[in-house]
Design brief:
The structure is a single chain. The protein is 60% helix and 0% strand. It is mainly α.
Length: 263
Amino acid sequence: MSVQQPGFIRESTLQSQPGTAPWWVGRRHPVWLAVGLAAVTMLLTAAIGVGGRVFAPTADPISVRLAAVLFLAVGACVVVGGAGAWRRVGAGGPAGWRQPGLLIVPGIIALAPIVTGIELPGGSLLIVLVVGYVATGVFEELWHRGLILDVLRGLGVRRSAILGGALFAGTHLANVVFGQPIAVTLAQAVGAFCFGVGFSLMRWRTNAIWLLIAIHATGDLLLHITGLHGGLLWVFLVGHDIAMGLWGLWCLRGLRDEARVLA
């Protein structure tokens, strides 16, 4: 009887029967496939942003962003669900979670903005923010920490996390089409890299995509409905992403970096 290292499942256990592997498994060039998957969503985001400016110039940019992220979230669910790969990408539910206690610290980090007080926006903006950030969490975790990391699993824990973080950062550059300043977008991309690496490592360790979605959505939402403004907002933004990256590195303790035992 073999002993399985905590946090991992052998590749062979992820398929219930021969011929049922998702379409992205076994591709000759997984890195290029991962780049392509990230590029597709970046281009779709940019297209929706440009389309909003051209066909609905008076539309609120927040509404256009909401439309984009809802489209991407539904698309991610369709791709993963259509391939029958929920369990494979870490979204199979509590039965597949491993060491979920490791996500308590990220949860606390996400909740940190509460110390500045809650400032709820008026009207329908709160609903838009809640729906938008939940959709963002679903899309970004399911697509990047689920699908793209699964494509890169052959690279091993560390390299897949680094490349996955870089691709995650790159997709944030599309935010310029929504009118976001270039300097802010570049800073956001750097933060997204730290966040992406950290969450990738947490995904490999815990196999709990749905918990990562909850933490991601909560953190993003609280950054916008609390008393964070000006320089203090930037302190929390930078600290949030760095802290998530550092905790991801902490989760590496004791893990081997083998290509065919990731789950």
